[in-house]
């Protein structure tokens, strides 16, 4: 689960991280009061969407010469004007895709005198099985480009979970960022705070880009991007309350209500599979035969008829879907249960696109019998390769 920048900063501030004063607003009418509550005279008006690259983004409705999604304001009147222009418009960035995202909230923040911009993130380094800091002196830039062009400027420091952030870890991090004086002292306080927040709140990513050294020598978290492990949200009602469903795909929201592992993609073949590995293999073979998957959908090993029907309805609700491939290996999952769910869903919502079903495993013959006797236009497949060929052929007409 992702949250907005202003929410991430409030969370980090509660742990003791240094952040600027700021106010979230939801209408242009709130901009004046928000700016007046800040020290000024410089204000930063920031679009709040779940995507990076906001500063370089462009608003669809405002033309190519309009300013981006992060703007400086040198007066309260200018902050008001920015808010009026940005709210309700669609911001397109490198991470939103061409459709962009509508800006429904802004964050007006007190400005900062920046001396240096640094990069810092925490993530789970699966190669060592530990949480790791990733830092660079090249803050404010596309970290992927830095990694490609100058990988030596990125330093990873994995943290032993039994020891936490040690003095040796701090020495490596501050040296990598070339910190000294007050900035180094601030960093030695900040880095353990960030690690504590990451672990206690079950984050999957904490990215600060940029982490700044101000002209007075002090450090500040200037931006914050935070994602949480969805499987751990049951432990964090306070984090669940921060969810902004307007930033999520409606199909993914509906899938989460049924505890389905569902990710919307850009292709035209809907997939319903049990097991993440089998789902990945199914998507791969669809691509092998020249088409693109419209989704990743894993119904899990213990799904019942109702859950299967819900998954099918979510897939058919996607207007991009031109065909559906159901690929089930019945281990814990029984093929007859899958068949009953598919038949029930088709009878309820109808079938407007080709449907190919491949069943194998427990109760496979009973499952096939249910499909064959349903009277529905369902194409059976013998194996995964056969299923992929048939669904692609059906779409190609």
Descriptive overview:
There is one protein chain. The protein has helices at residues 5-15, 31-36, 76-86, 143-149, 167-176, 181-200, 237-240, 250-257, 276-288, 305-316, 335-349, 364-372, 384-396; strands spanning 22-25, 43-47, 58-59, 70-73, 90-92, 101-102, 106-110, 114-125, 130-136, 154-158, 203-214, 219-221, 225-228, 261-264, 269-273, 295-298, 323-330, 355-361, 378-381. The protein has 3 domains: 18-110, Dna Ligase, domain 1 (2-Layer Sandwich); 114-239, D-amino Acid Aminotransferase, Chain A, domain 1 (2-Layer Sandwich), CATH 3.30.470; 248-396, Succinyl-CoA synthetase domains (Rossmann fold), CATH 3.40.50.261. Helices cover 35% and strands 25% of the residues. A hairpin with a 4-residue loop joins strand 11 (203-214) and strand 12. The strands form 5 sheets. Strands 8, 9, 10, 11, 12 and 13 form a 6-stranded antiparallel beta sheet that branches. The chain has 397 residues and is of the alpha+beta class. The chain has 13 helices and 19 strands. The two termini are 39 Å apart.
């Amino acid at each position: 689960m992702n949250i907005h920048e202003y929410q991430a900063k409030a969370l980090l501030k509660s742990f003791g991280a240094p952040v600027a004063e700021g106010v979230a607003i939801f209408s242009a009418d709130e901009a004046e009061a928000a700016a007046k509550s800040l020290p000024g005279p410089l204000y930063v008006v920031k679009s709040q969407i779940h995507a990076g690259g906001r500063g370089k983004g462009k608003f669809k409705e405002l033309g190519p010469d309009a300013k981006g999604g992060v703007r400086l304001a040198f007066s309260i009147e200018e902050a008001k004007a920015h808010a009026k222009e940005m709210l309700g418009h669609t911001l397109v960035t490198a991470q939103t895709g061409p459709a962009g995202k509508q800006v429904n909230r802004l964050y007006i923040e007190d400005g900062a005198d920046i001396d240096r911009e640094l990069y810092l993130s925490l993530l789970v380094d699966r190669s060592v099985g530990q949480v790791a800091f990733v830092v660079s002196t090249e803050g404010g830039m596309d970290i992927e480009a830095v990694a490609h062009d100058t990988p030596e400027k990125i330093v990873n420091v994995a943290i032993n979970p039994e020891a936490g952030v040690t003095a040796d870890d701090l020495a490596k991090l501050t040296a990598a960022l070339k910190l000294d004086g007050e900035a180094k002292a601030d960093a030695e306080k900040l880095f353990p705070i960030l690690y504590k927040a990451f672990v206690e709140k079950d984050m999957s990513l904490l990215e600060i880009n940029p982490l700044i050294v101000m002209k007075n020598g002090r450090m500040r978290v200037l931006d914050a991007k935070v994602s949480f492990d969805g499987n751990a949200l049951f432990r964090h009602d306070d984090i669940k309350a921060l969810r902004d469903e307007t930033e999520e795909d409606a199909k993914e929201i509906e899938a989460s209500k049924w505890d389905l592992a569902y990710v919307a993609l850009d292709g035209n073949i809907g997939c319903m599979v049990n097991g993440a590995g089998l789902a990945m293999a199914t998507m791969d073979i669809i691509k092998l035969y020249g088409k693109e998957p419209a989704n990743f959908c894993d119904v899990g090993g213990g799904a019942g008829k109702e859950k299967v029907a819900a998954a099918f309805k979510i897939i058919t609700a996607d207007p991009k879907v031109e065909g559906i491939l159901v690929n089930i290996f019945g281990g814990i999952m029984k093929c007859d249960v899958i068949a009953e769910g598919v038949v029930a869903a088709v009878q309820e919502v109808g079938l407007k696109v080709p449907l190919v079903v491949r069943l194998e495993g427990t109760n496979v013959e009973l499952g096939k019998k249910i499909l064959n006797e349903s009277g529905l236009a369902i194409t059976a497949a013998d194996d995964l390769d056969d299923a992929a060929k048939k669904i692609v052929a059906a779409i190609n007409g």
